[in-house]
Amino acid sequence: MADGEVRLGIVGVGGMGQAHVRGLAAIPNAQIAAVCDRDGDLARLIAEPLGAAAYTDGPKMIAESDIEALYICVPPHSHEDLEIRAAERGLHLFVEKPVSLYMKEALRARDAIQRAGVMSQVGYQLRYLPHFRQLRDFLTDREVGAASVCRWGGAPGKDWWRRYDQGGGQLVEMTTHQVDMLRWVMGEVEAVSAAYSFERLFKGEYGITVPDSQAVLLRFASGASATISTSCAIGKAFMGSMDFVIRDAKVSVQGEAVAVTPEGVHTLPAPDSEKLTADEAFVRAVATGDPSLLLCPYDDGLKTAAVTLAANRSAEQGGRLVRIEEVLA
Hints:
With 329 residues, the protein is an alpha/beta fold. Helix content is 36%, strand content 25%.
């Protein structure tokens, strides 16, 4: 192996898998050596320009390929035991969010990763963006009373995404990024209550069973609260916001800046250290053995999934307050 070279495999080369292929192409010491997708033609299409081996069976690729780290970029309902197989082979793991629709499956994967002692990263890439790191730094020594998050957009055309039993809905599959950011800057969520709108705006549209609109209330262990409004019914008219209440001020994420009212706009400071993307951090961590580069290990990303799955459980049970410990049990 060339000095510093990291040989990688990718299971699932749909949208996110291809995004990682592009991101890894910009990293000189990252070599994609194996590609797997159930669509064999797609696997070969991605693999051939890379000089990588193409597979249609994830477990077979994990067992046979000459790799030291693995990206898992499959839909949330179809992870099965990929993480466990990879960890038992000693492969470091980059797992796309959400880690799973099934918490028992995710807990088994977490335990396998911990037993094997491999490094892991979940694809919560907002943690690597400078303005979100600035937001976290700004709020670290300040009490946050409440937060309000909005993410409205459209429903992707993928069949699995549009099925509630396979994608979990927008909160689980997309707005999970905003849930993760709330956890990152405000601490752990203690309990969740939720109300969803099913078969209303998508009524009569074949194949869509996800809720069109979701309202969620989070209660944090600190005593703070947050509300989340998310919808996949407004098509291309995307709208998003994230606001925090602190004493005598509102803190807002505005584009790539953090604004504090009435104190004025806090623009991004000049970087005082190298800023890495999630892909760069993962490759460097594998190359150097430094897990401190990984801002969201698997056990942390699993907790974000638990919050969104608790919200689903609450909505399915008429808005009952669901404690996160129930989901993690």
